[in-house]
Amino acid sequence: MEEKVAKTPKLADPIESSIDLATQEMIKRAQELGVETVFDRAVAMKPCNIGIQGICCKNCAMGPCRLPLPKDGVKGEDTRKGLCGATPNTIAARNFARMVAGGASAHSDHGRCVAEVFLAVARKESHDYQIKDPVKLLAVAPHLGVATKVEVDGQKVDRNLDEIALEVAEKALNEWGKSEGELLYLKRAPQPLYEKWKKYGVLPRNIDREVVEIMHRTHMGVDQDYKNIVKQCTRASLADGWGGSMLATDLQDILFGTPSPLQSEANLGVMKQDHVNIIVHGHEPVLSEMIVAATQSKEMVDYAKTKGAKGIQLAGICCTANEILQRHGIPTAATFLQQELAIITGACDAMVVDIQCIFQNLANVAKCFHTKLITTHPIARMEQNNVIHIEFNEHHAMEDAKRIVKMAIDNFQNRKAEVMIPRHKATQIAGFGVESIEYHLGGTFRGSYYTLNDNIINGRIRGIAGVVGCNNARTKHNEQHITIIKELIKNDVIVLTTGCSAIAAAMHGLLTPETAQVYCGPGLAEVCETVGIPPILHLGSCVDNSRILLAATEVVKAGGLGKDICDLPAAGSAPEWMSEKAISIGHYFVTSGVYTVFGYHLPLDGAPVLQDYLYKDMQKMYGGMWDCEEDPVKHAHKMIAHIDRKRKELGIDKARERVLMDMADRQKLEMM
Ligand code: SF4
Ligand code: MSK
Asked: Which atom from ligand 2 is nearest to the alpha carbon of 468?
């Protein structure tokens, strides 16, 4: 009998997989050790050609029904339909809507957890947390209809902070399930935008309801009009951006402190061979805040020394990283795609995960090393038996955190593989927010976005871009992020960034004021050098995209750039998106008036009519629209072209032309 020869699995080419040297080195290292990573799996398994077009329906057991687009496109009437008659538009819209529901629920359920902890703190049931930013509490309270002053003997006096906190907590939690009315934060948007939402009937009623309604409408045989399905996408995504995410950001700032600019480092090189390395990964800062405090406690540092370590190195991955970076300067170890590589260094003594963006394969990788993989959230566990579950509870938060840190320290001496930590890391300045942009670009004296607006009007700054979102193993790691960001700043567009895009920019050394001299156009460079900020501002985690909405609102309020977000010379981008959250974010940006370009396939290609609706018709309604462009340079230039169109509409395109004069033009002028 012929003997079967086992096929050698296809492996990723490290150079083709990432533009980052640390990542390339670690992919090679993984392959030498025979440890499989996402990069190898992406080579071995290709995406489904029908699913990628958005036209596979499995919403009932008569399917899955697949409606691939004919090779030469649809000629004449589109007769494709599922067993029930569902058209490609219905199927793709339902799939898109379920992605919005997934994304909005992830952000908002995270927000709910924060609100519950906030309530426990306000009720004095949790003693490990305190309100760290009472100023923000007072700023947020009126938006939730909570009074900050009371009348005593005919005089307005300050209300007790504990009372305000309790009412804020209750009002905030009510936003998830109230029986009538609309979300309170919607009125924070510019008035014309609010009016548009009202006119189109998309004001979200409560956060949970909008997600549930998507699931109902997309059930077999319910909503079969793609425009009506997209309408519900709008409601649910607004309930995310102007609801769950915004509440998460606000309550986290009040509880853990509003970020302000600070210096740190990024990339796998932040891990230290002679330290206990603890990596926190996921999205919720509730536990990681405690882990920061525990790792910095003398008790734990001394204990680490008794085990032969020089200290404890805490670092983060994904948005938990961004949360503890922006408030404490804790270094960032990795983006989403590098999570397995952190363990493959052989120096990760514990990886502590909470919710979202966590590979189940971490458990398989951890098996090959000494790493303790610890899940902490009741809704996010793993089936593999090497995973330890320590359920975190806000009522004994510090106790849980210390237990985890001690477990990592005890594991330090168990390292088995040879440690290989790449040397690569870069300095970063992070911790920007609505408040700190106001301070840096407006000044405490004027307390507004005037300076930013002035510089946009005079053309030194051409416009504003939000570049956000994930990595995706179907694209070269970080390449799109970095190319797009560099192209934007080269053309004087200031960049606001969050999520893994911010981590990518940090790893590649772009989050420093020095970037201005090297990569920026002359106008933006001049502004950045004058005020001492990087041209790319790290605004935090995925839920902190709400900071971008509020920053845009502040720009509108400061005047001179129109009356609504859609009037601004601004555009959004998610270059390497992969998560359902990115779809929800994209949709709330679009329906808040932002032209938003994605860099990887949107699952719409199989339904051209729906695609046109999202790419063109949305603009007529909300002033923003979807787009997709895979070429990163073209992608950036689509954004710049939109910014220039808006400058023209505002009548400020001439100012920009003046700024762009070169030396020869100036000399010509002087001679006249
Ligand atoms: Fe097919 Fe319709 Fe069932 Fe979807 S809902 S699987 S299109 S029969
Ligand atoms: S972590 S959602 S990969 S940005 Fe927020 Fe990164 Fe995307 Fe997760």
From this structure: 4
What is the helix (H) or strand (E) element at residue 277, kind and residue range?
A: strand 276-282
Residue 2 covered by a domain: no
> What's the whole-model pTM score?
0.95
Distance CA 669, CA 232 (A): 56
- Say whether pLDDT at 662 is over 80: no
Please list, residue by residue across 5-37, b when 16 or more beta carbons sit within 10 angstroms of its beta carbon and e when fewer do. Answer: eeeeeebbebeebbbbbbbbbbbbbbbebebbb
Last residue of a domain, one of 256, 288, 318: 256
Tokens standing for 202?
């998309």
Q: What is the CATH number of the domain that holds 360?
A: 3.40.50.2030
The helices-and-strands tally (H runs, E runs) of the chain is 29, 18
Q: Is the CB of 469 under 6 A from ligand 2?
A: yes
pLDDT tens, position by position, 205-230 = 999 999 999 999 999 999 999 999 99
With a 6 Å cutoff on the Cβ, whether 542 touches ligand 2 is yes
pLDDT in tens, 416-446: 879 999 999 999 999 999 988 887 776 555 5
656 lines ligand 2 (CB under 6 A): no
Domain that residue 234 falls in: 88-256
Of the ligands numbered here, which is closest to the C-alpha atom of 541? Answer: 2
> Which residue has a Cα nearest atom 1 of ligand 2?
318
Specify if 223 maps to a domain: yes
Give 124 Cα–ligand 1 centroid separation in angstroms.
51
- Decide if 654 is inside a domain: yes
- The domain tally of the chain equals 3
Same domain, 461 and 407: no
The reply to whether 348 and 276 lie within a common domain is yes
User: pLDDT of 595-620, one tens digit each?
Assistant: 999 999 999 999 999 999 999 999 99
